[in-house]
């Protein structure tokens, strides 16, 4: 079932993976980290730097990030195609907007100040659909909105490939960090948080990307 797109979902590497923890099981790791006193809201802190009124949490999973953003007063829509993940999000926050849909042909008919794919979402979309996903995410950006992605850097989907997909979608890199806490990006690192914006838009248009604090 898909209520945000015109076509049937094509699936994802997440839905077909046998080894991942889904639904309430997915949240256990985060609960354990929080109980151990670790920060579990780095993504929400990072996204709030842009002072968004609205955020599309693309590949929202169990709503970990969207629910925290909503708690801080941001209007959020969470989209995911994995029913057990979305069921957990709905159970935790029934009043928020959750959409079961595939990002590859997403069309919510509106835009957002921030479109975010935290939690390695770009590594889990179906192989070969990354460019189409980025294009649909870009279509949901407000004029001065930002696309924010955080994912591990492995052979599965490299940063140069992501930048090329963003470029093809009309987006420029404006910031890049090694962590959600804005540690400086160093080429060859194993994780990147990237911020892209429509080409030629915003205060940093034409500038070199910021790659650290
Ligand atoms: C590792 S989980 C991350 C969940 C959440 N973003 C977080 O940070 O906790 C990856 C999520 O991406 C979703 N996903 C992968 N490909 C997708 C697609 N094509 N459309 C919608 N969701 C997708 C999966 O269903 C899964 O819930």
Question: How would you describe what is shown here?
Answer:
Helix content is 29%, strand content 23%. The chain contains seven helices and seven strands, in the order ααβαβαββααβαββ. It is globular. Helix 3 (64-71) links the parallel strand 1 and strand 2 (75-80). The model is unreliable at 1-9 (pLDDT under 50). With 213 residues, it is of the alpha/beta class. Bound molecules: S-adenosylmethionine. The site of S-adenosylmethionine has 22 residues, from helix 3, strand 2 and helix 5. S-adenosylmethionine (SAM) binds at residues 12, 14-15, 59-61, 64-65, 79-82, 85, 102-104, 118-121, 124-125.
Strand content: 15-25%
Structural class by secondary-structure content = alpha/beta
Instruction: Determine the N-to-C terminus distance.
Output: 43 Å
Helix content: 25-40%
Poorly predicted regions are: 1-9
Say what the CATH topology is.
Answer: Rossmann fold
Q: What is the CATH superfamily classification?
A: Vaccinia Virus protein VP39
Query: Sheet bearing the most strands, described?
Result: 7 strands, mixed
Number of strands: 7
> Which ions and ligands are bound to the chains?
S-adenosylmethionine
CATH class: Alpha Beta
């Amino acid at each position: 079932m898909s209520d945000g797109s015109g076509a049937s979902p094509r699936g994802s590497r997440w839905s077909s993976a046998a080894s991942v923890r889904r639904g309430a099981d997915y949240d256990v790791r985060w609960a354990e980290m929080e109980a151990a006193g670790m920060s579990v809201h780095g993504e929400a802190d990072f996204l709030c730097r842009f002072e968004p009124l609205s955020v599309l949490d693309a590949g929202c999973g169990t709503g970990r990030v969207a629910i925290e953003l909503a708690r801080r007063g941001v209007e959020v829509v969470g989209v995911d195609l994995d029913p057990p993940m979305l069921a957990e999000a709905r159970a935790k926050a029934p009043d928020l907007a959750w959409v079961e849909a595939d990002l590859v042909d997403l069309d919510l008919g509106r835009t957002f100040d921030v479109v975010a794919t935290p939690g390695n979402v770009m590594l889990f979309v179906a192989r070969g659909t990354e460019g189409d996903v980025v294009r649909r995410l870009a279509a949901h950006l407000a004029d001065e909105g930002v696309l924010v992605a955080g994912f591990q850097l492995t052979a599965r989907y490299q940063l140069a490939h992501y930048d090329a997909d963003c470029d093809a979608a009309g987006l420029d890199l404006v910031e890049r960090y090694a962590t959600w806490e804005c540690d400086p990006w160093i080429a060859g690192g194993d994780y990147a948080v990237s911020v892209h914006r429509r080409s030629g838009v915003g205060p940093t248009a034409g500038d070199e990307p910021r790659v650290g604090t």
